[in-house]
Amino acid sequence: MRPQEYRDYLIDVLKNTPDVGMVDAIEGGPHPFALTVTVAGREQRWQVIGQLAEGAKHDTPTAPVHGAPPPFQAAPVGGPVDAWLAGVIGAAEPPDTRALEVWSAREGKQSIGVTVFFHNGERAFLRLF
User: Fold this and answer.
1) What's the rounded Cα separation, in Å, for the pair 70 and 97?
2) Reported confidence tier of residue 109, pLDDT bands at 50, 70, 90
3) I want to staple 112 with a disulfide (CB 3.0 to 4.6 A). Which of 70, 78, 106, 128 is the partner?
4) What is the rounded average pLDDT of the residues 27-46?
5) How far apart are CA 4 and CA 108, in angstroms?
């Protein structure tokens, strides 16, 4: 899924999530395909970065591929924000998503974010900024 499409999908999912007060797209600026979300009174800003599937081109859409939704672990609002976001995505049971990787759970914990692996080979990187 392309970054703008995935950002719009996330906005729809987040609007229906408990503890989310406000969610909106961020247009323009240094972070394209970004969104802002207020969770339990705190603002988070996420940028969606995409990676095409092997052999895919930007000028043609990638055909969607559906399969089993990704395994996930729900995380509390007060915990790591990337684990919480991955839990929200997983709870939506997206049929196009194969797996979710929480960056703060990695050894070394260098950054905060989520990698979304799609069944069609594409990836989305959700980076907190």
Assistant:
1) 6
2) confident
3) 128
4) 96
5) 30
Q: Which of 51, 39, 43, 42 is nearest to 14 (CA)?
A: 39
Query: Using CB atoms within 10 A of its CB, is residue 65 exposed (0-12), middle (13-18) or buried (19+)?
Result: middle
* CA-angle at 101, arms to 75 and 96, nearest 5°: 100
Token pair of 120 as six digits: 């069609």
Can you list the positions of beta strands (E) in 1-129?
A: 20-26, 34-39, 42-51, 97-102, 113-118, 123-128
Name the residue with tokens 């976001």.
85
